[in-house]
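[Q] Does anyone have a clean structure-token version of this?
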Amino acid sequence: MMAAAIARNDSLVDRLPIVRGRYRSCVAVSELVWFRVGGPAEVVFRPADRDDLAHFLRHKPTDVPVIAIGVGSNLLVRDGGVAGVVVRLGRGLSEIALQDDGLHVGAGALDANVALTALQLGLGGLEFLSGIPGTVGGGLRMNAGAYGAEFADVLIRAEAVDSKGTVQSVSAKDLDLTYRHCAAPEDWIFTSAVLRAAPAEADVIAARMRDIREQRESTQPVRARTGGSTFKNPPGNSAWKLIDGVGGRGLARGGARVSEQHCNFLINEGTATASDIEGLGDDLVERVRGATGITLQWEIKRVGALPGRGPDCAGAVS
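[A] Here you go.
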């Protein structure tokens, strides 16, 4: 069985175009996401840069599905794993540089690193990024925000590569960024952005970032295995208040538990499966709907297959 699994996945790599980046077969996705759960990825591709990604998308077989991830901070991969190719944006797409028209940032750059670089450059307005545990690409895809600001407030323009390998350059207006929403086609993979920032006193910027860090550490389970905020806030309401109101705080399922500190966070206590976490989230949705008529919408992105329906990587996970 092990030999068959290896042969199947090696054959997929053999079908993929030659790239300057790196392919890996049967990768343990649990090592790539903050929840530390989930089945294997059939192939993980780390592109060398934007052009390498465009080349891959332009020449890959049309029947091979592709999804992109950053650091997996707002992602739940189901226990069956992910068939096809997972594009992992990393070092080749993480540059941060100040130019005349704004701060140029790669989609693989950590939000926190962007905030720190802005501090070093004496640029204000990006402090909120220090409170978002993800990458620029993920932030663009969901218009991430925290502490009174979001990507829509600072984005000038963005660049992405579509499923045919064509580079797309769009303005912030084109993306129609609203609360946790971006109108970019699902097949676009963001590669970079230009952000707006203004000169400010370094001590003022540092103080704001310190306040954000202290507030985050005092209100969120930042050292737990979690995926960030689980549900979007319904209009005029807060997801955590709705969950707390139906007795969700501390609720458990298998190895997953609703955080006692902030009940819009689900935690892997060490033995959870992806099914435990997703099932616990679905339980909360049903409780809130039954009590209030409000249907909570998942903010965490859920991908992959149920057990037994994903890639056959038994004995071959690296």
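[Q] Thanks! Anything notable?
[A] Residues 1-9 have pLDDT under 50 and may be disordered.
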